[in-house]
Every structure is written in C-alpha cells, then in structure tokens.
Write a sequence for this structure.
C-alpha cells in the first residue's frame, strides 16, 4: 500500500511537471527511491516503463494542443522537451500513426495512441455495445462553464452537482431516468467553454416553463458503456478517464466531431423524491455513458472480440 501511494504521488507530480526536465534522476529523487527500485515499482503497478509513460503523456498533451490550438509545431515540440521539430514529429508519428500535421487536420479525433493520466483505479469491466439512437427528444436547462483544455471533462464535479440541484428544484417529481449532454462550445488559448445540459425526456404530458433548452438526437451511432451501481462508489472522473484513456483507445474507434457525450442516469424503482434536490447519487441504479462515434461496418467486430 505504501509503494502504491508513492507511485500515485509520482504520477500526479509528473503531470504537474511535463513541461520541465523529468530526467530519471529527478524523478527518483522526488520519490525517495533509487532509480532502479522506482522503475521496477512503476512497471509493476502500471505495466509501463517510467520513460515511456512520460513520453506518452507529453505527446498526448501535444496532441490536445494540435487539435484545440494553432500553436506552431516547433513551439509545441520545445514545450514538451523535444530537442527539435523533427524529433518530435518522429516520436508523434510512432505513437499516433500519423504526422502532427495530419493529426491537426484530421476530421475526427482518433483515440488510438492517446494516453490520459493514470488514475488510482484502473481495473474494472464495463458492458460495451454499439447502439443507434433512433429518436430521443430532451428538454432541460443549459449550463456553461470554463475549463482547462487538458482536463476539461474531469475536474467539474462540484459545478455539475450544482447544475443538478437547480434542475431538480424545478423538476422535483419521480423520474425513471434523466440525461446530461455535454460538448465543447468554443476554445481560446488553453481555455474551453463547455456546455453541460441537465435534461429529461420531452413528453407531451409534462410541461415545465423553466426548461427552455431542447435537444433532439436522431439516427446517431454511439458507443454505449453501462456502469453498474457497484462502480458508482468510485470517483466518476476515474471511470471516464478509463473509458477515454483505455477502452476507447483499445477499440480504436474515432469520436464523432461536434456531437455531445450523453450521460443517462437510471433511478431505483422506489426512492424518496425529496432526496433528489440534495442527494441524488444514492438513488441511481445504473449509469449509461454514450460517446458519439464514426464507425464502419467492420468496426463492429471490435466490440464482439
């Protein structure tokens, strides 16, 4: 347990120092262990060598900048400690199977090669399937917030808790399920503007004057992950990290540009409705998470294998 905490601390420290000199001597000095012992512990607990992890994280951060900013390639290369644009381009192509130039201009954001920060929890199984949402009409409340370009979807728990409080204050009645839609609205430098909509199905028999936002999803392909109740005790961001950083990368299916992720929260059959406004999570039975995808017919076999 002590060694696990050391590696966790080192991972977080690495994340804060990716733009600085991370020679093995510096990292081992930070950990308090010898270079040999630190490398052995890191490989045992993560399955990766320390050097390959640092390089993959730097290249992944560079990939985010390529997609979301117009920073020149040389500036990105030097920022992430590559000695030249050529060295950076070779390493990038080896990890992502394409040059930085082509990665920046590719229509869809391919998950192959991308490495997110390792999290404390990485071993769980989720039911995965490719689904088509034929028709889903939603109504609710639109929210927007600012976030860092690197971790925009993983550091927003408090804000989203407040959004759901507002939602249930205006819809304090029994729900079978509710939804959240979220997507990037705009980007400027390292800052993104994110839309997060808290929603329910738009039914004729229910009219709520506070719900001004409408959304309709039709004939759209999604990768659906079912998160059972027993995993909801984990930090939600850890689950999403693993979906994007491990499972989506392993399946090598591109995310569809411009479409929102969907969270579907399914409630238990019986629960105190009054709890919705201040403590909804214990009332949730399952969560389905949907990632919009571009997929060819032969890609469906990846899910089955």
């Amino acid at each position: 347990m002590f060694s696990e905490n050391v590696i966790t601390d080192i991972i977080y420290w690495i994340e804060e120092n990716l733009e600085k000199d991370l020679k093995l001597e510096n990292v081992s000095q930070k950990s308090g262990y010898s270079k040999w012992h630190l490398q052995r512990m890191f490989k045992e607990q993560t399955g990766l060598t320390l050097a390959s992890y640092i390089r993959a994280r730097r290249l992944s951060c560079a990939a985010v900048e390529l997609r979301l900013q117009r920073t020149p390639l040389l500036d990105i290369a030097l920022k992430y400690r590559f000695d030249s644009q050529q060295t950076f381009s070779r390493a990038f192509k080896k990890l992502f199977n394409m040059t930085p130039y082509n990665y920046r201009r590719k229509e869809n954001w391919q998950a192959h090669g991308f490495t997110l920060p390792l999290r404390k929890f990485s071993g769980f199984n989720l039911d995965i399937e490719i689904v088509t949402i034929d028709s889903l009409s939603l109504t609710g409340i639109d929210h927007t917030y600012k976030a860092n370009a690197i971790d925009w979807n993983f550091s927003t728990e408090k804000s989203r808790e407040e959004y759901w409080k507002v939602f249930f204050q205006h819809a304090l009645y029994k729900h079978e399920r509710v939804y959240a839609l979220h997507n990037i609205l705009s980007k400027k430098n390292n800052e993104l503007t994110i839309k997060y909509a808290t929603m329910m199905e738009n039914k004729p028999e229910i009219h709520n004057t506070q719900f001004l936002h409408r959304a309709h999803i039709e004939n759209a392909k999604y990768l659906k992950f079912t998160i059972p109740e027993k995993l909801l005790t984990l930090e939600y961001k850890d689950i999403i990290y693993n979906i994007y950083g491990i499972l989506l990368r392993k399946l090598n299916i591109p995310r569809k540009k411009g479409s929102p992720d969907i969270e579907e929260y399914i409630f238990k059959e019986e629960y105190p409705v009054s709890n919705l406004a201040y403590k909804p999570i214990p009332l949730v039975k399952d969560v389905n998470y949907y990632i919009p995808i571009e997929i060819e017919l032969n890609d469906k076999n990846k899910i089955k294998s």
Summary: The two ends are 34 Å apart (CA to CA). The chain has a mean pLDDT of 82. The longest strand covers residues 127-148. The beta strands are 127-148, 177-188, 191-201, 213-228, 261-267, 284-292.
